[in-house]
Structure formats: C-alpha cells, structure tokens
What does this fold into?
Amino acid sequence: MNKTYQPVRRWSLFWPLLLIVAGAILFLNATGTIKGTAWDMVYRFWPILFIIGGLDGIFRRQAVVFSTFELGVALAYQLSLLGLITGIDWYIAIRFWPLILIAIALDILIGDRTLWASLVALVAGVVLLVVFGLATNHLANTRPLVYQNVNQPLEAATSADISLSPALGRLSITGGAAKSDLINARVTTVKNFPVNPSYQVKDGKGTYTLDIQGAYSVIYPDRNFNDPSIPVLDCRLTSAIPYDLQVAVGVGDVTANLTGTHPDNVKVNVDIGQEILTLPASETYYVTAKNSIGALVVYVPRGKPVSIQLKTGLTVTHLPDDFNREGDTAYSPGYKGGTNVIDLTLEQDIGSLDVRYLQ
It folds into this structure.
C-alpha cells in the first residue's frame, strides 16, 4: 500500500523566542549595557519581530520562501538600526515590495508537501534576497542624484501660507531665507525629475505649495542613508512676514527650527518617523503636531506661556517638571492670565512624546 506523505506539523517557536529575546534586551537595559527608555528599545529592536517570524516559518516549513525573504530583509534592517552595517538605502529598497508577492506565489506553487519542497523553497527565498540586494544596489548606483535650488521671491506678499508635502524622506526647515524671498529650498532628486512649486499672491497673501507626492519612486536621500545631515528637502523660511505652515510626510523625519521667524499657525503631520520642532519666542501662535508611529520632540522657549493639549495612545510622555497637568491639558508657569502665548496640540498614537525647554 502506498502511503501519502504527510508533512510534520511542528510547534511554533515564535513566542518562546520572542520572550527569550525580549528578556535579554530588558536585562541588558536594566544593567545599563543598552541605554534608553522602553520606547527607545521598541524603536531600535522592532525588526526582531520579523526575524523571529521568519525563523518560525522556516522551522515549521510554512511559507518558507516568504519566511526566508522576511528573515533576510528584517535582519539587514536590524543591523542597520544598530549601526553594524551601512550603505543600505531603504528609501530605494522599499520600491521592491512586489518581491513579496512573488514570494507568496512561489510558496503556493512549491508548497510544503515534502522535505525537498521545503529545501527548494528555502533556496528560492535566498535567490529573492540576492535579487533584492542586487536591484537595490544597482538602482542606487545608476540613478544619479542632483540638487535643485528652488527660490521663491516674496513679491507683494505681506503674509503667506506655506505647504510642504514630501511623501518620503528627511525634511529640514529653518529660518534664514534671503531678505526678499519667501523660501529658499534645496531639493535632492534623481536626475531629470522636475520640481514644480506653485505660488500666487492675492490681496497681499502668498500661497506657496511644494508637493512631492509619489516621491517614493523619485525622491531619495544621499546614498549615505545613515548620515542624518543630508536631507531630501532643506528649506529656509522668511523672517520678514508672518506665515502659516503645513507639513505632511508619510515616512521620514522632520526637523523644524522656527526660531527667528513669525509663524501664526503651524501644522506638522508625520505618519511614521520622527518630528523635532523648535519653537520661537515670538507673538501668540498655534501649533498642531501629529505623529502616528515614532517620536515627537518639541522645544519651547523657557518663560514663554505655553498650553499643551495632549492626545496620546500607547505613548511615553515627558513634560518639563514645572508644567501643571490637568487631565489631557498641561500648562507652563504663568500661562493662565499670560499674553503672547503658545497653544500646542500634540498627538502621538504610538511612541514617545517629549516636551523640553530650549537651553
């Protein structure tokens, strides 16, 4: 009688491995070997979840192609977060997500019916990883970067609305635009990609938009991705007139130092990444900052009346010691009854929220 092969269903390694690794990280953190808050640990070691998931899939011989691919990519990302490897441009690598679909399709075709099928699937996963690495490196070296300077004169504007919307990347904003300009921007793009800002002035109010949606396919940081000093979009704003500022970034970092400028309303939204906002000691103005997953850091002038409306989820929140907190609202000393105040609305869904005084 012929016997039909039945694949062995193995127990899952996921939770035992996760508990072992989490315990080891927390132990090293408690002994001071690894420094940082709990959310710092999550930010630095989150790829371990996918590393363990990949190992578990390979061990159980389930979706071996996808598990191998998952393991390799997550391991590379983890090593880059720890600074052990460099030169991986993840803004380029993210373009090759269709390889995930190929991995899933190969798992369906190969299956897990025999040991040999699992070995073939393992080899297929390694081949996909090699293709991923070669394609990422090839694109990084064959799509030369150029730097475009975009300068917008004030014209007749006495106030302005400014909107900056890169889908991916680093965005740096400071004061210091030329005296007659609303904004001086330096944009990092691949060769021959047009950057077309729009600007119009009506009744003394200028409206400026620099919208780079779809930038995942065309906008990259410098190839030394781990060098945080090289932004995708570097903007200097006017100090001559008041302005409203709106910033929207899908995945990336925003560093905005608005000291020396005159904002009326500031809205910054980052879906995944980090926001660092440094606020000026100017007249009354309003700031709304939202970060879905990541870190939000806000520097406020010492002695300036400040109110903060907090909207937090799974968030570690730090405020200056002299702030008075009443439910979801916090006040600096002298806010109630004060003048020239700063009203903040800070929303952090998952991650850390830190408000500090300017030194």
Summary: The longest helix spans residues 115-142. The mean pLDDT is 85. The two ends are 82 Å apart (CA to CA).
